[in-house]
TrEMBL record:
Catalytic activity entry: L-proline + NADP(+) = (S)-1-pyrroline-5-carboxylate + NADPH + 2 H(+); L-proline + NAD(+) = (S)-1-pyrroline-5-carboxylate + NADH + 2 H(+)
Endpoints of the signal sequence: none
Major localization listed first in the record, in broad terms: cytoplasm
Residues noted as binding NADPH in the record, renumbered to the chain: 55
GO cellular component: cytoplasm
Function: Catalyzes the reduction of 1-pyrroline-5-carboxylate (PCA) to L-proline.
HAMAP family: P5C_reductase
Identification of the protein by name: Pyrroline-5-carboxylate reductase
Gene Ontology biological-process entries: L-proline biosynthetic process
Domain Pyrroline-5-carboxylate reductase dimerisation: 161-265
Enzyme Commission identifier(s): 1.5.1.2
């Protein structure tokens, strides 16, 4: 049984823990370090996992340690964890946006480290994760990291670490883009007079249906789009409006802003840590 420790028991840790438990990982295999008593109590109540106030207590005996704190919290956990990690020498997995492998090695010492970027749909087994490993990660550890993230969705290894900020901007932040689009669709339909409950139900189901067609049918998004678009019909009118407003450019700029923010997060840490 692989013993897992999570440092930080927030949104992402909860998504990953929930997903892992659904795949049959026993509750006894997971420990979490979380500073807030209320959050610790909730982790025990909802997931049945052991939660500790002290980070080193969660790490004791762990084969794999997942750093699931905000990038800005890394300097605060570094000193307390470094010795425990060096004693235990687990596979270290970081999910922090922007934080680079060389920074993790500098803070926590020479360890096998996988930097990865999952997303919140991991909670329902529909996550998407990009991973990159440092040179100390052995083939079995690489398989171990992939196994953990495979348990909560799709995984892809990324060869060039610089592209992890692109992965963050695409799939890490991506669920929020779709949620924002559903919010906007719902609001637009309400503005035209549809009851909000009806607008939300139709928008959500449309998102689900489109997502399932994309993932289950194997056809390219462009082909699926063309099939909805009758010549001179309603969809064409909407897509032309999107194009006139520069949808492609809007999305490209947003993804560039997210990737840039990932780089900035790492640069800010270089200055402070
Ligand atoms: N949210 C997302 O969709 C995704 C997030 N990520 C990355 O995952 C990481 C976590 O994000 P997210 O889960 O959203 O953030 P959260 O704030 O929900 O979770 C972070 C947790 O870490 C806890 N924490 C704070 N300080 C410490 C400490 N010193 N020791 C141990 N735990 C501590 C926080 O407790 P408290 O609340 O008391 O401060 C909180 O419970 C980030 O680095 C983010 O970049 C990656 C992919 C997707
Ligand atoms: O917004 C963030 O910084 C994190 C990383 C990816 C998703 N949420």
């Amino acid at each position: 049984m692989t013993r897992l420790a999570f440092i930080g028991g927030g949104n992402m840790a909860r998504s990953l823990i929930g997903g892992l438990l659904k795949t049959g990982v026993p509750t006894g295999a997971i420990r979490v370090a979380e500073p807030q008593a209320g959050a610790r109590e909730a982790l025990g109540r909802e997931f049945g996992v052991a939660a500790y106030a002290e980070n080193p207590l969660a790490v004791a005996d762990a084969d794999v340690v997942v750093l699931a704190v905000k990038p800005q919290v890394m300097p605060a956990i570094r000193d307390g964890l470094r010795d425990a990690l060096q004693r235990q020498r687990p596979l270290l997995i970081s999910i922090a946006a922007g934080v680079r492998l060389d920074q993790l090695e500098r803070w926590f010492g020479a360890l096998p480290i996988v930097r990865c970027m999952p997303n919140t749909p991991a909670l329902i087994g529909a996550g998407a994760t990009g991973l990159v490993a440092n040179a100390r990660v052995s083939p079995p550890q690489r398989a171990q990291a992939q196994h953990i993230l495979d348990a909560v969705g799709l995984t892809r290894w990324i060869d060039d670490e610089r592209l992890m900020d692109t992965v963050t901007a695409l799939s890490g932040s991506g669920p929020a883009y779709f949620f924002a689009l559903v919010e906007a669709l719902e609001d637009a339909a309400v503005a035209q007079g549809l009851p909000r409950e009806t607008a939300r139900a139709l928008a959500v189901q449309t998102c689900l249906g489109a997502g399932r067609m994309l993932s289950e049918g194997g056809e390219a998004p462009g082909e699926l789009r063309r099939r909805v678009t009758s010549p001179n019909g309603t969809t064409q009118a909407a897509l032309e409006s999107f194009a006139a407003d520069g949808l492609g450019r809007i999305v490209a700029r947003a993804v560039a802003a997210a990737a840039r923010r990932g780089e900035e997060l790492a640069a800010e840490l270089d200055k402070t840590a």
